[in-house]
Design a protein that fits this description.
Layout (H helix, E strand, L loop, with lengths): L5 H12 L1 H9 L8 E7 L4 H9 L1 H4 L3 H5 L2 E5 L19 E6 L2 E7 L4 H14 L10
Parallel strand pairs: 1-2
Antiparallel strand pairs: 1-3, 3-4
Length: 137
């Protein structure tokens, strides 16, 4: 019979109860690459996060914005990747924060719906000086 250590128990609880934390650790970006990234800040019980995942996430990586700034996700309560320089702590889920080498360039707080998500994201990216092919192109 195996005995669970406290560390093993905590690791299992984290993986089950807070999948966003486990995802953040697995997909933390390499800021040295200099590429743009879009960080989605979410919570496990966030209804609008679930809507975004069902409506937008399946095609996001193939979109112009997704190709320009690949997405990674973190839990609202952290931990956040090392090297971030944010304008402020995210307080709304979902929040979409455009990062360049870990420095915030722009932010969308909340989910505006499937029809308006890409136009709002493209406007935010353009305002930050990021050229993005139209999402429909």
């Amino acid at each position: 019979m195996s005995v669970l250590t406290r560390r093993m128990t905590l690791a299992m609880m984290t993986a089950v109860l807070m999948p966003g934390i486990a995802r953040a650790r697995q997909t933390a970006p390499d800021w040295k690459s200099g590429s743009l990234r879009l960080m989605m800040v979410s919570e496990s019980d966030c209804e609008f996060c679930r809507e975004w995942r069902s409506q937008i996430a399946p095609g996001f990586a193939r979109s112009g914005a997704g190709r320009r700034a690949p997405l990674f996700e973190v839990d609202l309560n952290g931990p956040y990747p090392d090297g971030l320089a944010l304008a402020g702590r995210p307080r709304v889920t979902p929040s979409f924060i455009l990062l360049d080498r870990g420095s915030e360039l722009g932010r969308i707080e909340g989910y505006v719906g499937a029809q308006d998500f890409y136009p709002v994201l493209e406007r935010m990216m353009a305002g930050a000086g990021v050229d993005v092919p139209r999402w429909g192109a």
